[in-house]
Design brief:
Layout (H helix, E strand, L loop, with lengths): L1 H19 L51 H5 L4 H13 L6 H9 L4 H15 L1 H7 L6 H18 L1 H10 L4 H15 L3 H11 L2 H5 L1 H11 L1 H10 L5 H17 L1 H9 L5 H17 L1 H9 L5 H17 L1 H9 L5 H17 L1 H9 L5 H17 L1 H9 L5 H17 L1 H9 L5 H15 L3 H11 L2 H18 L1 H10 L4 H27 L5 H17 L1 H8 L6 H17 L1 H9 L4 H18 L1 H8 L6 H17 L1 H8 L6 H17 L1 H10 L4 H14 L4 H9 L4 H16 L3 H10 L4 H17 L5
Helix pairs in contact: 1-5, 1-7, 3-5, 4-5, 5-6, 5-7, 6-7, 7-8, 7-9, 8-9, 9-10, 9-12, 10-12, 12-13, 12-14, 13-14, 14-15, 14-16, 15-16, 16-17, 16-18, 17-18, 18-19, 18-20, 19-20, 20-21, 20-22, 21-22, 22-23, 22-24, 23-24, 24-25, 24-26, 25-26, 26-27, 26-28, 27-28, 28-29, 28-30, 29-30, ...
Length: 772
C-alpha cells in the first residue's frame, strides 16, 4: 500500500513538472507512509554522503536484481501501458537498494521517464530510505529532485519528524531545501497540526508559507473546530490566512454545506469572507451547481463574483451541459458570460459534438462564436477525427475555419503524428498549411525528430518555419538536449537560430540544470548567448543561485544581465527579504536596482506587510523608498486594505503618497466597494484623496457606473476631475449610452467636452458600434 501511495503522488508531481516545465512539489496530503525498514531515529546529516546502503535491513521483497523479472529496457518498450505498469512494479519489487541508482539512471532517459522513475523511487524509499537520502545529495534533474527529495523526507518524518525537519533545514537554500521542508511539515500535520503550523510560521520562508494549505487541510479533517479557531487567530494581513481559510472551508463544505454556510454568515464582510465564500461556492458547484449558481447570482458584481461564476460553469458543465448552457445564456452580457459559455460548450462537445456544433450554427457571427467553434473542434477531434474534419471543412472560409482545422489536426497528431503529417503534406500551400505544420511537427518530434525536421523544412519557410522549429526544440531537448543544441549551433546565424537555442536551453534547464549551466558558460560571449540567458534566467537562479550570483559580476550591462539580476533577486527575496535588499543595494546599475527593490518589497509585503512597512521607513527618502512604498501598498491592499490605508496615512505627502492612495483605493474597490467608499468619505481634502477617488471611480465603472460618476465629480482638483469624469463616462457609453448621455448633460465638464462625448455616443448608435 505504501509503495502505491508514493508512486501516485510522485507520478502526479513529475507529470506536472514535465508538462509545465517547472517543479511542482507533492505534499503527500493523504499518504500515511509506514516505513518497512529498521533504522535508528537519529538520522545522518544531509551532507553526510557516507551513509551506509547496506541492504541487510531491507525486507524480504528486496532480493538481488539478478532475480528481477524481465529486463528494464524491454519493459520500457512495452506498448501496452497497463502491462508496462504491472511489469515495472514487479521489476521494482525485486530490486535491491544497491541496484536502484543504475536502474533510475536508465529510466530517466526513457520516453515515460516520470512514471518509471516514480515507481523506482517509491520502492527505494520503502526499502532503504537512508540510501535514497544519500542519493538526494547528487546533482540530478529537477524532476528527479522532486521525486527523491519529497519521497525521502516524507518517509523520514514518519519515524522522527524533528530530526527530519532539522536535516531538511540544513540543506542549502533553494528548491531542494523547500521541497524537503514542505514534505516534512505535511507529514507532521497528520499527527500534530498545531505543532506543524507553529513550525511553518517560525520558518518565515517560502517552504513554511507553502505548507499552510496542506497543514490546515489535515487539521480540518482531523478536528474541524480546532482548525476553524486556528484560522481566525491568524493575522488578516497574511497570505497564510487566505490559504488556511480556503483549506478549512473546502473540508467543511465537503462534510456539511449548511454548517459551512452558517459559519460563513458569521464572518464580517471583507477579504476574509470573500476567500471563504470562494471555497464554499467551489464545493457547492461540485455537488449542486444550480444551488451554487443561485447563491452566486445574489452576490454583488465584481472580480470575486466573476471567479465564482467561472467555478460554477466548469463544475456544472461536467455533469449537465445543457442545463449549464441554459444558465450561462441567462447571465448578463459580460466577458464572464462568454467564458462560461466556452466552458459549457467545451464539455458538451465531449459527449455530443454534433449537437454542440448544431447549436453553434444558430448563433450570430461574432468573436464569441469563433471561440466556441475552436472549443468544439478540440473536443470533437479527440473522439472522431474524420467527423471533425468533415465538419470543419464545411465551415465558411475564414480565419475561424483555419483555426478549427489547425486544432483538429493538432489533436490528431497527439495520437497518430505520422498520419497527421501525411495529411498536412497533402494540403495546398498557404498560411493554413504552415500553421498546421507547426503543431504536427511538435508532436512528431516526440517520436521521430528527423521526420519532424523534414516536414518543417519541406512545408514551411520564414517565420512559419521558425515557429515550427520551436516545437521541435521543446521535444528534442527532453530526450537528447546535447544533440539538439549541436543542431542549433549548426544553423546559420539568424533569429531562427537564437530562438531555437533558447527553446532547447529552457527545456534543458528544466530537466538537467547543472549540465545546461556548464554548457551555457562555455558559449562565446556574443548576442546569441545573451538572448539565451534572457530566456533561462529564472530557471538558472532557481537551480543554482550561487553560480547565477557569481556570473552576474562577469556580465556586461544589458538586458541579459538585468533579467538574471531580477531572477536572483526574486529567489533571494523568497528566502530572506532583508538580505535580498542588501544584495540589491550593492548593484551599480540604477535601473536594475530600482526593479530589484520593487520586486523584493512586493514579495515581502505579500507575506509580511508589517515587517516590510517597518523596513521601508528606515530607508533614505528618494526614488528607492518611493518605489518600495508603492510595492508595499499594492500588495498589502490586496489582502488587508484597511491596514495598508492606516499605514499610508502616516507617510509624508508627495507623489509616492498619492500613488499609494490610488493603489489602495483600486484594490479595495475591487474587493469591497462599500468599505472603500466609507474610507474615502473620512479622508480630508487633499491631492492624495483626489488620487484615491480617481482610482476608485475607474475601478467601479464596470459594476456601478452611476456611483463611479458621482464619485468622480467629487474630486477637488479641476484637471483631475475632468480627466476622471471623461474616462468614466466614456466607458459607461459602451454599456448604457442612454444613461451615460444623461450623465454627460449633468456633469461639470466644459461644454466642448460634453459635446464631444455626446457626438461620440450618437455616432456609435448610428453605426451599431455599441457593445451590448
Amino acid at each position: 500500500m505504501r509503495l502505491s501511495i508514493i508512486v501516485v503522488a510522485l507520478v502526479l508531481s513529475l507529470g506536472l513538472s514535465f508538462a509545465a516545465g517547472s517543479y511542482f512539489a507533492p505534499t503527500f496530503l493523504a499518504a500515511r507512509l509506514t516505513p518497512q525498514t529498521t533504522f535508528t531515529a537519529k538520522f545522518p546529516s544531509p551532507s553526510d554522503t557516507s551513509v551506509s546502503t547496506d541492504t541487510s535491513t531491507t525486507t524480504a521483497g528486496s532480493a538481488a536484481s539478478n532475480s528481477a523479472p524481465g529486463d528494464l529496457s524491454s519493459i520500457l518498450t512495452e506498448p501496452n501501458s497497463y502491462r508496462q505498469l504491472k511489469d515495472l512494479t514487479a521489476y521494482a519489487d525485486h530490486l535491491s537498494s544497491a541496484d536502484m541508482p543504475q536502474a533510475i539512471q536508465k529510466a530517466e532517459s526513457s520516453p515515460n521517464s516520470f512514471q518509471t522513475v516514480a515507481i523506482l523511487v517509491g520502492r527505494w524509499v520503502e526499502i532503504d530510505p537512508k540510501a535514497a537520502l544519500a542519493e538526494t545529495q547528487k546533482k540530478r534533474s529537477r524532476a528527479m529532485d522532486a521525486a527523491l527529495v519529497s519521497g525521502v523526507y516524507a518517509a523520514l518524518a514518519e519515524t522522527s519528524p524533528s530530526d527530519a525537519l532539522t536535516m531538511a533545514q540544513q540543506l542549502p537554500p533553494g528548491q531542494k531545501h523547500d521541497m524537503a521542508v514542505e514534505s516534512v511539515l505535511s507529514e507532521m500535520a497528520m499527527q500534530n497540526p498545531s505543532q506543524a503550523l507553529a513550525l511553518a510560521q517560525s520558518l518565515k520562508n517560502t517552504a513554511g508559507r507553502n505548507s499552510v494549505y496542506a497543514i490546515f487541510t489535515q487539521w480540518a479533517d482531523k478536528d474541524l473546530n480546532q482548525a476553524t479557531q486556528a484560522v481566525l487567530q491568524l493575522s488578516p494581513e497574511e497570505q497564510q490566512r487566505s490559504n488556511a481559510l480556503q483549506a478549512v472551508m473546502n473540508v467543511m463544505a465537503q462534510k456539511d454545506q449548511q454548517s459551512a454556510l452558517a459559519w460563513l454568515n458569521q464572518i464580517p464582510p471583507g477579504r476574509t469572507k470573500t476567500q471563504a465564500e470562494q471555497g464554499l461556492v467551489s464545493n457547492m458547484a461540485a455537488n449542486d451547481p444550480k444551488a451554487a449558481a443561485d447563491y452566486v447570482s445574489k452576490l454583488p458584481n465584481g472580480q470575486e463574483k466573476n471567479g465564482m461564476i467561472q467555478s460554477v460553469a466548469i463544475q456544472w458543465a461536467q455533469t449537465d451541459a445543457q442545463g449549464a448552457l441554459a444558465w450561462a445564456q441567462g447571465l448578463p452580457a459580460s466577458q464572464m458570460k462568454q467564458f462560461a459559455l466556452q466552458q459549457v460548450t467545451s464539455f458538451w462537445a465531449q459527449s455530443d459534438p454534433q449537437a454542440a456544433a448544431s447549436y453553434l450554427a444558430t448563433l450570430p457571427d461574432n468573436q464569441q462564436k469563433n471561440n466556441l467553434i475552436q472549443n468544439v473542434a478540440i473536443q470533437w477531434a479527440q473522439s472522431d477525427v474524420p467527423g471533425a474534419l468533415a465538419w470543419a471543412q464545411n465551415l465558411p472560409a475564414s480565419q475561424t475555419k483555419k483555426s478549427a482545422l489547425q486544432q483538429i489536426v493538432s489533436q490528431w497528431s497527439q495520437n497518430d503524428p505520422q498520419a497527421a503529417a501525411a495529411y498536412v503534406t497533402g494540403l495546398p500551400d498557404g498560411s493554413t498549411k504552415s500553421e498546421i505544420v507547426s503543431s504536427v511537427a511538435t508532436q512528431l518530434a516526440a517520436t521521430d525528430v528527423h521526420a519532424a525536421l523534414d516536414l518543417v523544412n519541406k512545408c514551411t519557410s520564414g517565420q512559419a518555419q521558425q515557429n515550427a522549429m520551436q516545437g521541435i526544440a521543446f521535444q528534442w531537448a527532453q530526450t537528447d538536449p546535447q544533440a539538439a543544441v549541436t543542431y542549433g549551433q549548426s544553423m546559420p546565424a539568424s533569429g531562427a537560430r537564437s530562438s531555437f537555442l533558447r527553446s532547447v536551453t529552457a527545456q534543458w534547464f528544466s530537466n538537467d540544470a547543472p549540465a545546461a549551466i556548464d554548457w551555457l558558460k562555455g558559449l562565446p560571449d556574443d548576442p546569441s548567448k545573451d538572448q539565451i540567458i534572457e530566456g533561462v534566467s529564472y530557471q538558472w537562479a532557481q537551480s543554482d543561485l550561487p553560480s547565477a550570483q557569481a556570473y552576474i559580476a562577469s556580465m556586461p550591462a544589458g538586458q541579459a544581465q538585468t533579467n538574471l539580476v531580477n531572477a536572483v533577486t526574486n529567489q533571494l527575496a523568497q528566502q530572506d527579504p532583508a538580505k535580498a535588499l542588501d544584495w540589491v543595494n550593492q548593484l551599480s546599475d540604477g535601473k536594475s536596482k530600482m526593479m530589484g527593490i520593487s520586486m523584493v518589497m512586493n514579495q515581502w509585503a505579500a507575506n509580511d506587510p508589517a515587517g516590510a512597512a517597518s523596513y521601508v521607513q528606515t530607508m533614505a527618502p528618494g526614488p528607492s523608498q518611493d518605489s518600495a512604498i508603492l510595492s508595499i501598498t499594492s500588495s498589502w491592499a490586496g489582502n488587508d486594505p484597511a491596514s495598508a490605508a492606516k499605514w499610508v496615512s502616516g507617510l509624508p505627502a508627495g507623489s509616492a503618497n498619492n500613488m499609494a492612495y490610488a493603489n489602495i483605493a483600486s484594490r479595495w474597490a475591487a474587493a469591497d466597494p462599500a468599505q472603500a467608499s466609507d474610507w474615502l468619505m473620512q479622508l480630508p481634502a487633499s491631492s492624495s484623496k483626489d488620487a484615491a477617488i480617481g482610482a476608485f471611480s475607474q475601478q467601479l465603472t464596470e459594476s456601478d457606473p452611476q456611483d463611479a460618476f458621482q464619485w468622480a465629480e467629487s474630486i477637488g482638483d479641476d484637471s483631475k476631475r475632468q480627466n476622471t469624469v471623461t474616462t468614466v463616462l466614456s466607458r459607461w457609453m459602451n454599456t448604457d449610452p442612454t444613461s451615460a448621455a444623461a450623465a454627460v448633460q449633468k456633469s461639470t465638464l466644459p461644454d466642448d467636452q460634453k459635446n464631444s462625448l455626446l457626438n461620440r455616443t450618437s455616432n456609435q448608435q448610428t453605426s451599431g458600434g455599441i457593445n451590448q
